[in-house]
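Morning!

As promised:
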Amino acid sequence: MTQETQRKPLLTGRNLVKRYGRVTALDHCDFELYPGEILAVIGDNGAGKSTLIKALSGAVIPDEGEVTLDGKTVHFQSPNDAREAGIETVYQTLAMSPALSITDNMFMGRELRKPGFRGKWLRQLDRPAMEKFARDKLNDLGLMTIQNINQAVETLSGGQRQGVAVARAAAFGSKVIILDEPTAALGVKESRRVLELILDVRSRGIPIILISHNMPHVFELADRIHVHRLGQRLCVIDPKNHSMSDAVAYMTGAKVPETELEPA
Amino acid sequence: MPSDTDNYETVVRERRAEKVAEFEEHHRGFMGNVQHALHVTPSLVPLIVLVASLILFGVLLGSRFFSPFALTLILQQVQIVGIVAAAQSLVILTAGIDLSVGAIAVMSSVVMGQFSFRYGIPPAVAVVCGLAFGTAVGALNGWLVARMKLPPFIVTLGMWQIVLAANFLYSANETIRSQDIAAEAPILQAMGAKFEVAGAVFTVGVVFMVCLVMVLAYALKHTAWGRHVYAVGDDPEAAELSGVNVKMTLISVYALAGLICAFAGWALIGRIGSVSPTSGQLLNIESITAVVIGGISLFGGRGSILGTFFGALIVGVFTLGLRLAGADAQWTFLLIGVLIIAAVAVDQWIRKVSA
Ligand SMILES: Nc1ncnc2c1ncn2[C@@H]1O[C@H](COP(=O)(O)OP(=O)(O)OP(=O)(O)O)[C@@H](O)[C@H]1O
Ligand SMILES: [Mg+2]
């Protein structure tokens, strides 16, 4: 495994600090994501998992610390900066505009314009192209039951919404895909689809950060598990060397891990 | 210890408020279908009310009301409010409100007039200065809302007072007379120019209002900017996370609203002939009324600019219809009040589709 540990991480966080008033959501937290891996992030509610990935995706600007991508320090000022760098995120809140259509939501901020005069001068959107793309991506996810690609997102069920958000990230992520509890509202069948999609994305060589409270899912997919506790990285474990109850015990503080970083 | 894991799982699962995926289409009753149709096309309600009120007054008043002349008179009477309400719609779609619209319109008209008459600037250039003034004040509103994160109500309440006071101070409360404008700077009255088609009388201002509504309807529906305006009004955090430049969108909306109000100021000179710093005092309330009756949600993100146009026309139809019927003008206000409350009730009902 030595050659693995010598690999350079693709995305890192060093000493990240984020305070919300008197709450310290991130307390000098480190983070590494290696090329081509699925890294699970687990931790109790309020441990700071979402804040951590937001600091990596430009949604939160950390008070201290630095983020690097491909070895270069980056200073994302907005989620758009991170998206342009190829980092695509499904936020826990899903970040969709309820009154707008599925297509509008999938292309929010990167709309396609018609070719020629109508696109260039009238700035007209290329609806047919966007609709076709959106339909294809939802079909990939097995969300065929969505009848109308132009229905408002608020008329979808919680699970369908989550499916659309995941499809959006998978379609556009080119460097890193971050999923904050992507299966939380999904049924068994739909969760399975998302898990397959995650493996599919990895087989394309794109690494994934997966936040989940679902231990069976985490242990099934993850190459490494980052255990988050009280705003810090408690340890990184290899799922092959630990049981689920160990992992739960670490994150709740019932048990202390022997080593902080396990080579994976 | 698998039981531990299981307990942990249940705890986590119980915390979830969201439902597990549910894919079958459930049946809607008749009211459900109506609700759904309104949800998809929010301008339907004001359109129905508009057509109904046209029929009602047509039956009551006959050809006195149903003549090309009377019907186009309505258009002339609502043109200023219609233009300002278009600006107001944009702002309200972003979940804001602009109380300074009337003041911007009037002050812009004063700038156009005073620049021509006091400084001898060519009137066409003075018009451009007036339009630039309106845009600048709007952009300042937008900057305060987007960058300084101040509530739109407060920002525009303050701006209303500032611009109105500046308007009186700058103009020294002086009206520029219609005859002087006609003689020396006729372009200031250009929006009032009339032309007749088979008894129907149109003004340039009316044509401008209709074109403006069409252009904005197109921009809101078929351009990325328009989709961003809705997204920002719907849920600004979600819009930001999904890649919309929320601040720039807000600033562009307020600046555009300022520009449109300045056009309304120009149209105002055409309508009344003179440049009067005391005109247009009711434009705030009247524009908000048109927007609300037009079915745009004050919570932002829902409604269409066509609805606002219909809303403005409804007010015009009631005003003229009741006047021709010889009713006390107070009846107009009373009915408008009823319509406002009804419109908001319908909006709340439509929103339940999502629940
Ligand atoms: N916008 C905010 N304003 C104030 N406090 C916040 C904000 N976001 C997060 N926090 C606080 O930061 C801490 C970490 O929150 P975070 O959402 O990162 O937790 P989490 O690990 O994702 O939890 P969960 O499993 O419930 O999603 C919490 O104590 C939370 O109350
Ligand atoms: Mg979270």
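The longest strand of chain B covers residues 194-197.

Hope this helps with the figure draft.
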